[in-house]
Write a structure and sequence with these properties.
Shape: elongated
CATH architecture of the largest domain: Up-down Bundle
Structural class: mainly alpha
Largest sheet: 2 strands, antiparallel
CATH topology of the largest domain: Vanadium-containing Chloroperoxidase, domain 1
Low-confidence stretches: 1-59, 268-279, 287-297
Order of helices and strands: HHHHHHHHHHEEHHH
Distance between the termini: 146 Å
Number of strands: 2
Number of domains: 2
Mean pLDDT: 74
Radius of gyration: 35 Å
C-alpha cells in the first residue's frame, strides 16, 4: 500500500463525512483537514489531500455567512457579564436542590430521636413537609429525564444553526437533551411545592422560578418551548405528589368537597395542648371574725 493510499484511508476513518467531490467547507472537521493539507500535503505529495484543500470561496456563500452570523450571536463562555447569570442558573440545578433536601431530611432523622416528645413532634412535622418537597421535585425531574432521552431535541446552535427541529431520538447525549428544560422543571416544581406548604412564600418562589427560566434562555441553553414544557411538567408533577400525600393525610388533607387543604402546622401551642382549665369558682363560706383572727375571738371573751 502506497503512502498516499494510507493517508487517504486514515483521513476517511477520522472524517467519514467527507466523500470524493464534496466541499470541505460543509463537512465536520474541515479546519483540521485544511491544516493537515497545508502542513503535510506538500511534504507527502498526496494528491488526495491537495485536491480537497479548504476552499476559501465557500466562506462567501450566503448560507455559510448566515450560519456564521447566527453562531456569532452566541455569547462567549468566558464573558464576564454572564457570570451572574451562570451563578443564578445553578440555583435551579436538580442535583443541588435534591441533595440539599436530602441532607436536611438526614439531619431530621438523626436529631429527632434525641429530643423530647414535644420537640420531636414539631421536628417530625417539619420532616414530613421536607419529604413532600423532596418527592415533589424528584418525580417531575425523573419524568423530564425520560422525556429528554426519548425526544432527543438538539440544543440551540447544535449543528451550526438555531434549528428547533433538530432531533436525534434516544441519543442520550447532553447536546440532544434540550426538551424539556431540567432547570425549569426543578424551579417550578420547587416553587409550587414551597407555595403549597408555606403560602406566604408564593410570591418569592414565583420570582425565583421565572428568573431561572429566563437565565436558561439568556445562556442559549434551551429553546423557549423547552422552558415552557419544563414549567408545565414541574407543576403537574408536584401536583401529583401533593395529591398522593393528601390521600394519606401526610401534611395535606382532602375535604368532603374534594378540595385540598393543608394540615394544621405543628406549632408549640397545638403540641403542648390548651392551657389548663381554671377550676370553677367556689363560693366561699362566710368567715367570722373568730375564724380569721382567732386572737380577736379571745379578746371578746
Amino acid at each position: 500500500m502506497s503512502t498516499q493510499a494510507a493517508v487517504g484511508e486514515t483521513l476517511e476513518l477520522f472524517f467519514p463525512a467527507l466523500r470524493p467531490g464534496e466541499d470541505v467547507g460543509d463537512a465536520a472537521g474541515a479546519p483540521a483537514l485544511a491544516f493537515a493539507a497545508r502542513r503535510g500535503g506538500a511534504k507527502i505529495g498526496a494528491p488526495w489531500i491537495a485536491a480537497r484543500r479548504y476552499p476559501r470561496r465557500s466562506d462567501r456563500r450566503p448560507d455559510v455567512c448566515a450560519r456564521r452570523h447566527r453562531i456569532g450571536l452566541m455569547p462567549p463562555r468566558g464573558t464576564l457579564s454572564l457570570w451572574p447569570v451562570r451563578i443564578l442558573t445553578d440555583f435551579g440545578k436538580s442535583a443541588y436542590v435534591l441533595w440539599l433536601l436530602a441532607g436536611m431530611l438526614f439531619a431530621v432523622a438523626i436529631i429527632s430521636p434525641r429530643l423530647r416528645a414535644t420537640s420531636r413532634s414539631l421536628l417530625l412535622g417539619f420532616g414530613t413537609r421536607l419529604q413532600f418537597l423532596f418527592f415533589a421535585v424528584l418525580v417531575p425531574v425523573l419524568t423530564g429525564e425520560a422525556i429528554k432521552w426519548v425526544v432527543g431535541r438538539g440544543r440551540p446552535f447544535v449543528g451550526g444553526e438555531a434549528n428547533a427541529f433538530n432531533f436525534a431520538h434516544f441519543a442520550g447525549t447532553e447536546a440532544y437533551a434540550s426538551f424539556p428544560s431540567g432547570h425549569a422543571i426543578t424551579s417550578f416544581a420547587l416553587a409550587f411545592a414551597v407555595s403549597a406548604v408555606w403560602p406566604r412564600a408564593r410570591a418569592a418562589m414565583i420570582v425565583y422560578a421565572v428568573l431561572i427560566a429566563i437565565s436558561r434562555l439568556v445562556l442559549l441553553a434551551h429553546h423557549p418551548s423547552d422552558v415552557v414544557a419544563g414549567a408545565l411538567i414541574g407543576v403537574v408533577g408536584a401536583m401529583f405528589v401533593r395529591y398522593w400525600f393528601a390521600a394519606r393525610r401526610l401534611g395535606f388533607a382532602i375535604r368532603r368537597d374534594g378540595a385540598l387543604c393543608r394540615s394544621l402546622d405543628p406549632r408549640w401551642g397545638h403540641l403542648k395542648g390548651l392551657p389548663a382549665r381554671r377550676q370553677p369558682h367556689k363560693k366561699r363560706t362566710p368567715q367570722t371574725l373568730d375564724m380569721v383572727l382567732p386572737a380577736a375571738g379571745q379578746l371578746k371573751r
